[in-house]
Structure formats: C-alpha cells, structure tokens
Write a structure and sequence with these properties.
The complex is a heterodimer of chains A (437) and B (318). Chain A has 437 residues and is α+β, with helices and mostly antiparallel strands. Chain A has 19 helices and 15 strands. A two-stranded antiparallel ribbon of chain B has the order 1-2. Classes of the chains: A alpha+beta (437), B mainly alpha (318). At the A-B interface, helix 1, helix 4, helix 5, helix 12 and helix 18 of A face helix 2, strand 1, helix 6, helix 8 and helix 11 of B.
Chain lengths: 437, 318
C-alpha cells in the first residue's frame, strides 16, 4: 500500500517529473551529439500499440540522420495519456506520442501539443480528409493521422450455424439471436454490452447522434441525446433479459471463454482483429466479420471507435524531423504493411488503403477478406463527429456509469445523464462556454 | 573524508588545552554528523517537503480557459475553491468513508492475526521459528502491484483455482460480485501486510525482559495467561505503531483496487481517495488533484494523531 502511495502521489504531486526524467531518457527532442555522429537528430516516441517498434526499427535503418527511440507506455486511458501530460507539464516530454483522435482535442485544450502545420500541411492531401480534421483544431495541425477505427461485428460463423441462427443484419435481429442462443444454451452468450464511453459513442455515432458540437464560441454537450438514449435502451433491454456476457470484453477470461465456444460475437473496431487472431487458439479459423447490425433493414450506417495519430508534443525542438518520421510511419509501404499485420490498423493514408495487405484474405477469419467489410464501414461513417475538450473525464465517468449499469446498480440511461451533468460541470469549472445541446 | 577530519583533529590537538581540544573535536563530530545526515535531509526535503509545498500551492489555483478553450489554459488564484469543491464532491467523500470503513474492519483483524502469529512464534513450543518467520514475512517481499495482479487471477471467474475448488465442494463463489469487492481488497491487504506487522510485534516480544517471565512463572502463571498479562501489555507500543502504520496505509489504498478494476464492475474510477486524485490529474486538473491530496493528508494526520492521543490517554490512566 505504501509503495503505491509513492506512485500515486508522486505522479500527481509532479514529483512524477523525477520518475519520467529517468524513465524516458534525456534525449527527448534535444540534440545530444556527443556520442552520436554529428548532426544526427534523436527523437523519442511514446506509444503502446504492438508492432510500432518494428516500424520504428525500419525507419532507423533507412534514415541515418534521424534516430527514433520507441518507448512503450501503458495504454492511453490506462495511464499512457497521464504520463504524457505529466511529462509535458514537467517540461521533459518526448517529441512524438501515440494520441487517439478522441483525446487529441483534450490534449490540445490542455496545451500539450505543438502546432506543426508548417511542416505537416504539405502531406495533407495524402490522407483521408476527415482524419486530417481529426489531427487539427481550428487551423492548427498537431500531428499526422495513422489509422481509423471502422467498426464491424466479429462473429462465430460455426456457432450461429450450430444454433440455427442467421447472421444478424439489424439490431433487432441481433437481440433476437442473442435471446434465442442463450435460451438454447444458457452457458453461451452472444456478446458483451458496450463497456466504456467510446463503445457507446461509436454506437451513438452510427445511430446519427453527436456528443459534442460548437456554436460560435460555445460548446454544446449532447451526450444525453435521443440517439444515445436509443442505444442505451437497446442494451438495457438485453442486460435486463440477462443474455449478455457481463464480464469485461477481451480480457483473459473473455479469451478463455471465447475459445471454449461460449461467446458468439463481438462488436468492435478493426483493431480488434489482431486482438482476436493473436490471443485465440481453439477458435481460430471459425471467426468471421460482418457489417454492424443496422437500426433499420437495408440501412448502411457505419461507426468508428478509435483511430489514432502520431502527435507532436509541446516543447519538441526537432519538429521538422518529428513530422518527417510521423509522415513516414503512416505512409511508407513497409511501415503500413507491418502496422496492418501486427497492430491491426486500418490506414488513414490513401496510399496505405491501396496496399495489397488491405485486401489480403485472413486465415484466422476462415479465409475472408475482412478489410472489405471495414472499407465499406469507413465509407459509411459520418465524418462530422466531434470530440470534446475533456475526454479523459468523460471517459472515466462514462466507464463508471457503464460498470454500474452492467452490475445492475443503475441503468445505461443513468450513465448518459450522469456523464452529461459531470461533463458540463467539469467544462464550466474550467471557464469554458458550454450549454446543453 | 570524516576519517581525515578526525585524524587531523587528533594530530592538531596534541599539546593543546583539553577544553579547546574537546571543542575542536566536537566541532569535527558535528560536521561529520551533518555529513551523514545530509543525504537524508536532501532527499527528505526534495522528495517529501518540497512536493507537499508544491501541492499546497497548486491547490490554491484553478484552470481557466475562455470560450472554446482551444489554446493552453491559464491558472488563476482561487484561494480555497478547490477545497470547497472537494468537501462537496460526493464521490470523493464516499471514497474517504469507504477506506476508513474498510480500515475499521480490516486493521483490527489483520493486527489480531499478526499478534497471534507473533505470540505463536515466540511461544516455547514452536518448531522451526526461523522458517515460519520467513514464510509469514514473504508476502511483504512481493511488490504490491505484483501481488495485486496475482490475486486478481485468483479472483477471476473461470480462471480462479479458489473458485474452482469451492465449486467442487458445492459452493458457488464469485469473487467479482459487488458484495465481495471490499472483502477481496481486505484479504489482499491482510495477506500482504500481516507478516510485516507480525515482525514488528515479534521484535518487541523479543525485547521483553526475561525476568518478567521468571517472576510470572514463579507466581504460577503459564501459557496463555503469560501472553495475556505479560506479553501483550509489553508490546503495546508495537501494536500502536503498527496500527498507525496500517491506518495510514489503508487511507492511501491504491494498487489493490486499481488492479481489481480490470476484473470487476464494482470499482469505479474514484473508488479510493488516491484513485480520485489520480482521476482528476488524468483529466488535466492537477490543481483539484492537489487539493484532494492535501485533504487526504490532513485526514491521515487527524486519524493517526487521534489514535495516538487516545491510546496515550488510556495508557496514562492505567
């Protein structure tokens, strides 16, 4: 207990600075040429996704003038983002960081990002338009987009067949199948409900809602919107019917159960594909991917969950080189192929989307060309969604609300109302202009 | 360096008046004492006092942005606003109540167990005391986070060998059920710290003068009565010390719930005061996190000193 006090308090008392200095090395953006060939620029890159290190190694091999050191942090909302913000506050942040689109506006609002528009803008046309908007706030550009998170339904083709159920194409069918399967075999569950704010955000996005917007110099918060409520009521019904898996999705237990044929489907973004293929053994080859179920038969609405950028953090001295790396990381053939294979990204660069790797059939998914599904989902996703400036708070409060709902202590709708209230309160407390949308 | 100081002191001292020699010697000693103390003071000031001052200072400011707040925020002096918010923050308050409540139940249980183990180790009939002492102490040697991860596997449904064993005996145990969360955490803390506290109490037992036992034996006192009348009153100091340590440890509960969050739906992001402060700093609100930390530190101080005062008064009354 006491040692963790040192950890917890250390971070927030900004003694964290001491730890981060020793943890991240001294070369964050500074030009230390004493032991290196003259003129070589050293950059440090913080991120957590698997496979990043391989692309970094490729870059270093082909760029003698720039050396990038990749340092693995905890996942973004699992501590990675706070480590980055602490380092920026302490003045010893690395130049480069993996920052999700959902968090980038919050980082910008915290003053943690560097405007690198003068170096980055020349690459603008190389990326899918809305991803470029995701790394910009107003006319400032904070990094290079890497990937997007189009969502789909991962499912067990063999189990649906076994229970004589169709592949659901609407949410109504999804619920019917869930109830039918659980009735036929109570030890089998269709899926987990959305577990956190970003899951619900993705589904609300599909339903046509928008959580945040701006009008003039005023923020509008719409977390508790009719579209969100539609999504909430839908999952509440399945929770009440007790046909869902209520332990956390994709954790060790989930994986064990999935391999024991106890999980039928998972609603998730494209990057889930490597999670499954790298962790599941017994059910390999039996999974397949279908478009997200729709609210109305014949609709084609996509959703997005995740997608991230390689952002340049405040205080970076070698911005030009940092942008050069980030652009190469997101766009060069070798790097993108590696990231598709090992990280499970769906590229944001137009060239990346044309790579054969994005069209390759996958053994784990029974030989299906799964990226076809995600390509369609990406095209069907409304790209005017906007994230708010306090997402760390929104996500923490929403996850708390969803946990209560899943445990049965409150409803999913309660999660919406409490998060809405807390978000407006948190934004007002910081002096932001805000109104309920 | 100190050696040379002392040696040169003696050399120069030859043929001087004793008083001057003593003065010079003691000055050398004071200097070397300071030298030995310096590392402590430097670290103590830099990693303890300075951060506290910094936190207090930060807690008097608040973030401020204008309009859409797309640029870096500024901070403004707001005096005690953050503290007012903290004492009105129902989640933060319930996190305080939660750790105090857990402490009220867990600390006596753990220390009772520590005392029992220490007495058993100290009893005349114990075999292999060294082996058992090490065994009891071993959990403490494991880093808290590692222990928490280990326990989270032991609790996780479908993986837990404990639940499996209970299942075979006909009991369905779900360690991730809402009602089990506090007992889960209490168990983890007890497992990790019983041996540590036992060792402190055991050391105190070893320091009890042997004459007392002889006298008691002559008076016909034996076994449990010796433990009750001689041993326990004599380790009162150690019990008070371990209680204060345990109270401090409990209000600062962090690693156990933070790890368990991954496997259960009942632990929120502000389950304990430290988690709540961590949440605020994750959201970029270092100032509010600082205020919460100061409130927590004050609570710890009040609890520890109240307990000390209480036991002192009771001790004096005896």
């Amino acid at each position: 207990m006491r040692s963790s006090w040192v950890r917890g308090a250390g971070a927030l008392l900004a003694v964290g600075a001491l730890f981060t200095t020793s943890a991240c090395g001294a070369d964050s953006g500074s030009k230390d040429t004493s032991h290196k060939p003259a003129g070589r620029v050293n950059l440090t890159f913080w991120g957590w996704a698997p496979g990043y290190d391989k692309s970094v190694a490729m870059f270093n091999a082909s760029h003698p003038d720039i050396h990038v050191t990749f340092q693995k942090t905890a996942g973004g909302s699992a501590g990675g983002y706070s480590k980055m913000l602490n380092a920026v506050k302490a003045g010893n942040a690395p130049c480069l960081a993996q920052v999700g689109y959902e968090t980038l506006p919050s980082f910008a609002a915290a003053g943690a990002l560097q405007d690198v528009g003068q170096y980055a803008n020349k690459s603008k046309d190389q990326y899918v338009d809305w991803t470029w908007k995701s790394v910009s706030v107003a006319d400032q550009v904070y990094g290079i987009p890497l990937d997007t998170g189009p969502e789909a339904m991962f499912y067990r083709a063999d189990l649906l067949k076994k229970f004589k159920q169709p592949v659901p194409t609407t949410w109504e069918e999804f619920a019917k199948v869930a109830k039918a399967i659980h009735k036929a075999d109570p030890s089998v569950e269709m899926a987990t409900p959305p577990g956190d704010g970003y899951d619900v955000a993705g589904l609300t996005w599909q339903a046509g809602g928008k959580w945040f917007g701006t009008e003039g110099s005023k923020w509008q918060v719409n977390i508790d919107s009719p579209e969100s409520r539609k999504v909430a009521a839908y999952w509440q019904d399945l929770l009440d019917a007790k046909v869902l898996k209520t332990t956390p999705a994709l954790d060790a237990k989930w994986m064990a159960d999935a391999d024991k044929d106890k999980v039928v489907a998972h609603i998730g973004a494209v990057w889930v594909n490597t999670f499954l293929s790298q962790n599941l053994k017994g059910s390999a080859g039996k999974w397949a991917v279908a478009p997200l179920p729709q609210w109305a038969k014949g609709d084609k609405a996509g959703a997005n969950n995740g997608g991230s950028s390689t952002a340049v953090l405040k205080g970076c001295k070698d911005q030009k080189e940092a942008v050069e790396f980030a652009d190469w990381f997101s766009r060069s053939k070798g790097s993108v192929e590696n990231l598709i294979k090992n990280t499970g990204i769906y590229p944001a660069s137009k060239d990346g989307l044309a790579l054969p790797a994005v069209n390759a059939p996958s053994k784990f998914y029974g030989g299906q060309k799964i990226f076809d599904v995600f390509k369609e989902a990406a095209a069907d996703t409304d790209n005017t969604w906007q994230w708010g400036p306090t997402m760390a708070q929104v996500e923490a409060d929403f996850t708390d609300g969803m946990k209560k709902a899943i445990a049965g202590d409150a409803s999913v709708t309660d999660a919406l109302t409490t998060t809405q209230d807390k978000t407006i309160e948190a934004m007002k407390a910081q002096g932001l202009n805000v109104s309920k949308g | 360096m100190t050696i040379t100081t002392v040696r040169s002191g003696t050399v120069v001292a030859r043929g001087e008046r004793p008083a001057a020699r003593r003065r010079r010697l003691s000055r050398g000693r004071t200097r070397s004492a300071w030298l030995f103390l310096a590392p402590f003071w430097v670290l103590f000031l830099a990693t303890f006092i300075a951060p506290i001052c910094y936190a207090v200072e930060q807690s008097l400011f608040a973030l401020h942005r204008d309009g859409l707040g797309l640029t870096a925020p500024t901070t403004r002096f707001v005096a005690l606003d953050n503290y007012v918010r903290a004492v009105q923050d129902s989640e933060f308050l319930s996190s305080l109540v939660r750790v105090v409540g857990l402490g009220v139940v867990q600390v006596p249980l753990m220390l009772g167990l520590s005392l029992l183990l220490a007495l058993l180790l100290d009893s005349a009939s114990v075999r292999w005391p060294g082996v058992f002492r090490t065994l009891f102490f071993l959990p403490y040697a494991l880093p808290g986070v590692i222990a928490a991860i280990m326990w989270s596997y032991l609790y996780q449904p479908g993986i837990s060998p404990l639940a499996k064993a209970a299942g075979q005996l006909g009991h369905d145990v779900d360690f991730t059920a809402p009602a089990m969360t506090l007992p889960d955490i209490g168990n983890m803390v007890t497992w990790g710290w019983t041996g540590y506290n036992m060792l402190i109490i055991f050391a105190a037992l070893k320091a009890v003068p042997a004459e007392l036992f002889e006298a008691a034996a002559l008076d016909g006192c034996s076994g449990w009565r010796i433990a009750w009348h001689i041993k326990i009153p004599n380790v009162r100091g150690a019990l008070i010390l371990t209680t204060v340590f345990s109270i401090i440890g409990m209000v600062q509960l962090y690693a156990e719930p933070d790890i368990l969050r991954g496997i259960t739906n009942t632990i929120t992001s502000d389950y304990t005061p430290i988690l709540a402060a961590q949440k605020a700093s994750d959201a970029g609100n270092y100032q509010y996190a600082a205020a919460q930390s100061v409130v927590l530190a004050l609570l710890t101080l009040v609890l520890s000193f109240t307990f000390l005062k209480f036991t002192q008064r009771k001790g004096a009354g005896e």
